[in-house]
Amino acid sequence: MGNFFRSEEMVLCQLFLQPEAAYTSIAQLGEMGVVQLRDLNGDVSSFQRKFVAEVRRHDELERKLRYIHAEMIKDGFSVPEAPTETKVPNPRESTDLEAHLEKTESELMEVSQNAVNLKNNFLELTELRHVLEKTKGFFDEQESSALGESGKSLIGEEGGQPSNRARLGFVAGVIERERVPAFERMLWRISRGNVFLRQAELPEPLEDPNTGHQIYKTVFVAFFQGDQLKSRVRKVCAGFHASIYPCPHQPEERAATLEGVRTRLADLTMVLNQTQDHRLRVLTSAAKDLHMWTVMVRKIKAIYHSLNMFNMDVTQKCLIGECWVPMLDLQRVRQALADGSREVGSSIPSFLQVIDTDEVPPTYNRTNKFTKAFQKLIDSYGVATYREVNPALYTIVTFPFLFAVMFGDVGHGIIVALFGLWMVLKETSLMKIKTSSEFWNILFGGRYIILMMGVFSIYTGFIYNDFLSRGMNILGSRWVNPYNESTLQDNENLELNPYEAYQDTPYPFGIDPIWMLAENKIIFLNSYKMKMSIIFGVVHMIFGVCLSVVNHRYYNNKMYILLEFVPQLLFLVLLFAYMAFMMIIKWWLYGPFDVQKWTPGCAPSILITFINMMLQSKLDPLPGCESVFMFPYQYEIQLGFLLTALACVPLMLFGKPIYLSIKNSRTKKRASLSGHENPQGIELTEEIGLNLKKKTAASGGHGDHGDEEEFSFGEEMVHQSIHTIEYVLSTVSHTASYLRLWALSLAHSQLSEVLWTKVLKIGFTFKGYPGAIAIFLIFAAWAGMTIAILVLMEGLSAFLHTLRLHWVEFMSKFYQGEGYAFAPFSFKKILKQDSTEEEG
Asked: What is the pLDDT, as a whole number, of residue 708?
């Protein structure tokens, strides 16, 4: 898991690769995926780099692979996945792969072109066969009606010159079915009704050789008289893309032609089958290794892209590059370089050396499949500044817990937990499913978060004693019934007096189940959940403020602990943590068993007490009560807390700017005395330099800081004023924001109860066989609404509110999030990204 408390310690290294070992060394680094290479040729165009020819060559190989894959998809082939241990081929194997792919592509293109030509011939012969078969009836009918008194035919041969002006010419062919109405109208218009058109639809569609689509067509014969109409009819046929075929007029010639066409079709069908078999053999041979070839080509291409980031040292005859490497992986990188040199038998080994730099390193948090989703939640807000405390470590617990406070229900928690558990147990098979559904990808990526949220919801559901809006009496109520049977029958509602009904021992775990039957259940749960939300929120914010100490100590800002952390903590604790403390004291002290001083009727309102504390006003005690205070010297203690909290505000406002101003003046004085004053006449403090590094990292610049700005007390004062006002106001707003825990929890429980009473409970009112059918249908409706409304909609709402509580209320107390992510050169990430782009 690595150092998950804060990001990995990174070092900037210089790589020295021998030209003969550069390919294998980069291949080793790509398999490891722990090195972020820097582009040292940023001012050189992509077409002027050393290995641009190799990149283009493998771009062409990728194009060939895409063509082969497209042909496989066209024929319905399934391409098996390549094994995960597919290695990068050496340059000689890469040349053999290129030759093999070129041969496969040329053979496949030749076979495909031949198949298209053969299919074109087959289509033409098929259309001619249909023309000869369908027009037989047309000619017979027209022949009988066109005989003159002499008994001679009035229909001439197609394309021939009729000897008699009374003889008719004709054009026969095939046209697409949807064009027939327009074709018929056009013939009518150009001939003014002097063209006689006969047509017959083909029962089966014909395949287009170029597109593979099925097209329905119609056979037609157009009879006309004269050469002028013949020319016009042929032009109309050409305009409507109709295919015209020669058709003999004499029955004997037509029968002989038809027999010849059928013979040629039989021969052509046999040739087409052989061609298709050969195509299938080529595709089958390529399908077994296509994915492996794709992986190899992409890895080789990534290697040459990386080598284009290196500089060539002509004098030392080596490639020089720079990279960020995690400190823990330095030895592994050195070993990878040694393995790459040994693999090609290089006499001079490749090596790397650590170099000093003032640049801000990238942020790298080493994660596993469990912590990855939680880390992505944090990175969505902002990548942590280098070596800053990582909130994801604590989010693993606090995120599902705060979600469960709002979603607490045993039944709904079981549904969520089972769904998350199913995705976790089936993650190997589910990972192989490639889908473009963003919703499913988000759910599957957060499967461990969903599982944790479900488990925590089951826990809080037992605390709330809530199972699908029903209470559970597992351990037995601590209240007893003091009334006799007649009293119970005569009264619908009875009050349980704690003196008589309570056994003076609390329910062992969670809320006593008798509260589920009480008329004042909502009032009791309102008070309970509201106070609980404030307590959780104050503790969560105090923990966030305390984490800022760790950052101050790591960045060597020890004075910030006194000038920022201490006043912030005191302001939060003395006001809002004290309010949470009064809630606990009120629960502890006031009860029904002390009838003198601590009776519930004398319990003060926490909100009124807190307002009086801020306004320094006093109230008279209630009748029969001794005091409005809960403990001795409460007024004096509250006054001291208030004054101390107010005194923390000017310390937060002026402390840091004055400290930086004094330190900057001392630094300038030392620099002037030593004679090493910089051109600006000042030397920035470590804190100012650190802030500039953070700003540079956030803006995306990672170079050296050439011209550093001079320290300005006014600018620092403005910045600190904004920070102080934001913190003081946010303590109020953020504390109130945690009331969403109470609001959503109450809304969830009430919605669940409404579905029970207004939907499912109706089914119990039916009797007999209709009741069985009704309860079945009503249960289906209730289950569907439970999943859709309470699990999906309420779950998503609770998730978003929990995310806000972490991003705004918790992380704003200590988290800067101004870093940039570590982007290592990794074959695994490159292949995954390419696969995602292909699916898109």
From this structure: 47
